[in-house]
Design brief:
By secondary structure, the chain is of the alpha/beta class. It has 2 domains: about 140 residues, Chitobiase/beta-hexosaminidase domain 2-like (Chitobiase, domain 2, 2-Layer Sandwich); about 375 residues, TIM Barrel. It is about 35% helix and about 20% strand. The radius of gyration is 26 Å and the shape is elongated. The structure holds acetamide and zinc ion. Zinc ion binds next to helix 10.
Length: about 550
């Protein structure tokens, strides 16, 4: 009798042991380029598995720490890690993969263990992301890892997401949470839109009023410029120390931060602080409503040029990014046409209208080329929205094509680098369903997950050299109608999952139905982190 109790007890124990074992699934988002199932037995990951990384390499040590954290979060299993070149029952992290693509990686799983080999530390990081997404989110004591060889590399080198913190401010902690979300989706560029008509959000030491005055608006319009205001002051800015902290946090996750100072339009934050920089001399107010203001930087005032030189130089001190974004979008020429100083500048520069461009467009082009020289002088490169094509393109500019793809196509044909971010597909401030009545208020548009997924960044009609000018893809979250970070999460998830496959996978690999089958596993990670995601495409 006692004996049968014992056996029953043992069976029960064994039962719980087996039911709690989880099985990895390598069909993650973004889908790896190649997954070859092995014939060998699976590797079984348990708390006795070690993470090994090369010695004297801080980045790899940090990669090991990320993997430790991710595995602990997913499964509860806490692995030990140490510097070592080899070992059994281990996840071995190493660089040295021969590949033209520095972000490439391989994962090999055999009964002895797991090896992640990157073409660089960044490649290893993406291998870790794939491994992390392969392992089910479930408390367990062991994970069965089927034998496999995965080879993977991204299609595009620039994989961006933009966040506008000017219309609505986000705390440093929220920006870090944003960066964690980007890392989960293999996004490697955080385009940080820092200045606007509605608020200037970065400390500039030489111009303290930018944040003392320019970062605050007295109240905000309700709805879509209803004429009614909420009566609540809104503000916030990042000190240079905080911005550097964000840059470092992102860099640890192989994410480059591209700062944007939007000029010469979208400048009311600066004009309210330094009215002499505007054509009329003000007074100006940090805007309480949405839209495009006619009040922009005065091109006739030498101080404007001094101002943007100083601001860009401080920005380049904070941000090590090769790319610096100078905006350039939506700059009405209304005031320049009326302003004596601007007209005197046009005359002294000998700018003339022709059948392609007005004299004022030429003036904008002069200004953007000036900004580019400031950026180039420090060995950096300038990005601008596609309006920088108007009036003639600055010599080394990279064009961010947002009004559809035509600006990008024109720039590629002029041998300029291009980032595709068309508002037809990749504006995540748009609605994500046609059922807008039950959605929180958005700016408009309709860009559901399927439409985002369908985007092909390489337009027809370009030759091979021109196609190679399309260096990347980005989606943008403008925040006029995104009052807080919870709402930002809702607007970008799971559209960011669709985006990341557009950025990472060659178009021939894309398959929307298959993507939808893989999405629930990623959503388990969203749930784990309590991300606020939209559920329209989840069945
Ligand atoms: C933009 O959406 N104004 C670039
Ligand atoms: Zn002027």
């Amino acid at each position: 009798m006692r004996r049968s109790f014992l056996i029953a007890g043992m069976l029960l124990l064994l039962g719980t042991f087996f039911t709690t074992a989880q099985v990895a699934n390598y069909n993650v988002i973004p889908m790896p380029l190649s997954i070859e199932q092995g014939n060998e037995k699976a590797f079984v990951l348990t708390k006795n598995t070690k993470i090994l990384y090369p010695k004297n390499n801080e980045k790899m040590k940090r990669n090991a720490a990320f993997l430790t954290d991710y595995l602990k979060e997913n499964t509860g299993i806490l692995l030990k890690s140490k510097a070592a070149k080899s070992g059994g029952n281990a996840i071995l992290l190493k660089t040295g993969l021969m590949s033209k693509n520095s972000e490439a990686y391989e994962i090999e799983v055999s009964p002895k263990g797991i090896v992640i080999t990157g073409a660089s530390e960044a490649g290893v990081f993406y291998g870790i992301q794939t491994l992390r997404k392969s392992i089910p989110v479930a408390h367990t004591k062991k994970v069965k890892m089927p034998a496999v060889k995965i080879s993977d590399a991204p299609a595009f080198a620039y994989r961006g997401m933009m966040l506008d913190v000017a219309r609505h401010f986000c705390t440093v902690d929220s920006v870090k949470r944003w960066i964690d979300m980007l890392a989960l989706h293999n996004v490697n560029t955080f385009h940080w839109h820092l200045t606007e008509d509605q608020g200037w959000r970065i400390e500039i030491k030489k111009y303290p009023r930018l944040t003392e005055i320019g970062s605050k608006r007295t109240e905000t319009v309700i709805g879509r410029n209803s004429g009614k205001y909420d009566g609540k002051p809104h503000g916030g800015f990042y000190t240079q120390a905080e911005a550097r902290e964000i840059v470092a946090y992102a860099a640890e996750r192989y994410i480059n931060v591209v700062p944007e100072i939007d000029m010469p339009g979208h400048m009311l934050g600066a004009l309210a602080s330094y009215p002499e920089l505007g054509c009329t001399g003000g007074p100006y107010q940090v805007w309480r409503q949405w839209g495009v203001s006619d009040d922009v930087l005065c091109m006739g005032n030498d101080k404007t040029f001094e101002f943007i030189t100083d601001v860009l130089n401080e920005i380049m001190d904070i941000f090590p990014s090769k790319y610096i974004h100078i905006g350039g979008d939506e700059c009405p020429k209304t005031n320049w046409k009326k302003c004596e100083k601007c007209q005197a500048r046009i005359a002294s520069l000998g700018l003339k209208a022709d059948e392609h461009h007005s004299a004022e467009e030429r003036l904008q082009s002069y200004f953007i080329s000036y900004a580019e020289k400031v950026v180039n002088k420090k060995g950096r490169r300038m990005i601008g929205w596609d309006e920088i094509l108007e009036g003639g393109l600055a010599p080394d500019a990279t064009v961010m094509s947002w009004r559809g793809m035509s600006g990008g196509i024109a720039a590629a044909k002029m041998d300029h680098d291009v980032i595709m971010t068309p508002n037809s597909h990749l504006y995540f401030d748009h609605y994500q369903t046609k059922e807008t009545k039950t959605e929180p208020l958005a700016i408009g548009g309709n860009s559901p997950v399927e439409k985002v997924y369908s985007f092909n960044p390489i337009p027809a009609g370009l030759n091979a050299a021109q196609r190679s000018r399309i260096i990347g893809v980005q989606a943008n979250l403008w925040t006029e109608y995104v009052p807080n970070f919870r709402h930002a999460e809702y607007m970008v998830l799971p559209r960011m999952a669709a985006l990341c496959e557009v950025q990472w996978s060659p178009s021939y690999k894309k398959d929307y139905e298959n993507f939808l089958k893989r999405l629930p596993m990623l959503v388990e990670v969203y749930k784990l982190h309590n991300y606020n995601y939209a559920k329209h495409v989840l069945r």
